[in-house]
Amino acid sequence: MLLAGYCIYPFISENAKHAISVSGLFVVTCLLNCSWILAWHYLFIEGSVVVMMLLLFALCVIYVKLHKSPPDSRREKWLVYKPFSVYLGWITVATVANITALLVHYDFSPPSPQNWMIAMAIALLLIVYLINKKFGDVAYSLVIVWALLGIILKRTATELQFGPIVTTCTVAIVITLWITIHYRYRKSLT
């Protein structure tokens, strides 16, 4: 839905240079997304991870290219910049999940699911830290929080006790929010 705003932005704006500058890469991400769906649907797990990594890379290039300069208007911020922040956030989470699926496919079993969740949470926190230190991106962080909340809700709906996975996700949410607020505040001071 947010990317629909990106698609119409060049038609409703007099100055759409930022949107147009990433349009070719956006088409590439669309093709990669379609490729991922096909690979996943036909259980080509290895291929789906490769496609997901390419998609993540393409989105990172778009993200960095857009953030080389600030948006020219509030409209551009919400119709061009924020959609790619959210898209990158979801693909970051999906990449971690896709790699997890690949490891499960190869019967890689960590000592416990809790340890695996802790490792995934640490990976996500490191990425959140890097994105926020450089860009102070609230939208990106909120996607990570949303995904972690989804894990908590799924776990608490099926488990009577709140185990280590719920605790890990809760701590990761608190740290994500702290990192986001900290770097957003620092960005507003400069």
Automatic annotation (TrEMBL):
Coiled coil: none annotated. Keywords: Membrane, Transmembrane, Transmembrane helix. The lineage of its organism: Bacteria, Pseudomonadati, Bacteroidota, Cytophagia, Cytophagales. The chain crosses the membrane at residues 20-43, 49-66, 87-108, 114-131, 138-156, 162-181. Signal peptide: none annotated. The keyword Ribosomal protein does not apply. PANTHER family: SI:CH211-161H7.5-RELATED (PTHR33802), XK-RELATED PROTEIN (PTHR33802:SF1). The keyword Membrane applies. This is Tryptophan-rich sensory protein. It comes from the Bacteria.
